[in-house]
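Below is how a single chain appears once it has passed through the pipeline. First comes the sequence as given, then the structure the pipeline wrote out for it. We keep one example in the README because the format questions we get most often are answered faster by looking than by reading.
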Amino acid sequence: MRTKSWWSRADDRLLGAVLGLAVLLVGVFGVLAPALGVVGLVDPVDTREVETGTTAPVSGTVTDAAAGHGMTLTGTHQADLAFTDPDLGQRLLLALPEFVGSLLLLLILALLLQVARTLHGGDVFVPQNARRLSVIGLTVLVQGVFSPALLALTTQALVSGTPLADRIPFSATFSGEYVLLAFLILALGEVFRRGTKLRADTEGLV
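Resulting structure:
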């Protein structure tokens, strides 16, 4: 049984416009632009912030040797790894973490848009929303765990076999906030699932 919704058509359009704009911005700047940079149609990503694991500056000998590989490292503990003229493989490794993270964010936004559309009908406790929230929670968890690992792995691939390999250790920074948010969303999905089941059982008694 459907109830009258407090969610108006204007609210529906406004939220749809906001989420649509977010999808557009993420798609253009997070997916399309890096992809075009990889194939060389626009200026590619050529710099990455890395952790050197030391507060000592890079020595002149290491800097000169790295420059011979088209690389420069500027900074101490938090440093910028820059490429003078990255080749296709380097451009791909530099863009891959942002590209994958943006795809995951697009999935989350698309699912949120589908959940929001059920507000207009006043019937949010539906099995589809429970599944959508579960997928969103798992996607956030993947983003929090896989993205930092991918960033560290691609950084190691970029410096492997170069004089900077010993200066840039494998380092992945995981955020507890992402894990907490993921479990909160998964818990909300379980609330929706139980609410849907309870409503179905109640309607069966009428």
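The chain has five helices and three strands.

See the next section for the split statistics.
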